[in-house]
Amino acid sequence: MIFLIYCKKKIILNDCQKRTRLEILRSWFQEKIDFSKIIFSDESRFSLDGPKNQSRWHFIADEPICTPSRVMEGDSIMVFGLIGVDGLLSIRKIEGIVNGEKYVQLMDKDIIHMLKARYKSKFIFQKDNARPHTSKTAKGIFMKHKIRMLTWLPHSPDLSIIENVWHIMLVQVYDGQIFQNKTELWEKITMVAAAINEENPSKIKVLYSSIIKRYLDVIEKHGDNI
């Protein structure tokens, strides 16, 4: 079996992108947004043959963190995930490619109802600017349910703490086990997510406690990434 090493890649930002990040971050502080109320969401692909050359942003050390990747042909599973300050990690399997229709159905029929039941109306929903998330229909669903949204920064995976959670999951899912099919892979993914919820919710709470410093660091760097 051949192994590769992949490391986090640093996104190179131009001056305009840095200014946009700086302006939006400053506006968050001016609006006195309660960062503990943010629900961070994202999708990540898990492959039978390992993480391949995926890039994930980690904030655990100053040096790039590398993870072994198996090199072989294999199928994959797209996973939608979200986290909350109470330590919640919730995941859903998405069949096929994420498009606007699938995203809207997931939000309208499942996720929004789950969040309202858990947090009432006391949350702010974060999503990145991927096309399925920003379609007219998706915007309409959030308006329909009166969901408060966080204006997200473009080119900013370094500011989304769910990236840390994906890294934790990747390390624990690909711990040496070889997956023969997607059923085995999904069982391992759900087992890892359940373990995080049951045994280590404090890890997510620690990530939330790092948000203010992380955002202030970007402001100090005039919008550049951290």
Entry keywords:
two-stranded antiparallel sheet; 15% strand; Nucleotidyltransferase, domain 5; 226 residues; globular; alpha+beta; disordered N terminus; 8 helices; four-stranded mixed sheet
Layout of strands and helices, then pairs:
Layout: E1 3-6, H1 15-30, E2 38-47, E3 67-70, E4 76-83, E5 89-94, H2 100-119, E6 124-126, H3 131-134, H4 136-144, H5 162-173, H6 182-199, H7 201-209, H8 211-220
* CATH-derived architecture: 2-Layer Sandwich
Unreliable spans are: 1-7, 55-73
**Total tally of structural domains:** 1
Could you tell me the mean pLDDT?
87
Quick overview of this protein structure:
By secondary structure, the protein is α+β, with helices and mostly antiparallel strands. It has eight helices and six strands; from the N terminus they run βαββββαβαααααα.
What does this structure look like?
The protein is α+β, with helices and mostly antiparallel strands and 226 residues long. 43% of the residues lie in helices and 15% in strands. A four-stranded mixed beta sheet has the order 5-4-2-6, covered by helices on one side. Strand 4 (76-83) and strand 5 (89-94) form a beta hairpin. Helix 1 (15-30) crosses helix 8 (211-220). The longest helix has 20 residues, at 100-119. It starts with a strand and ends in a 6-residue tail after the last helix.
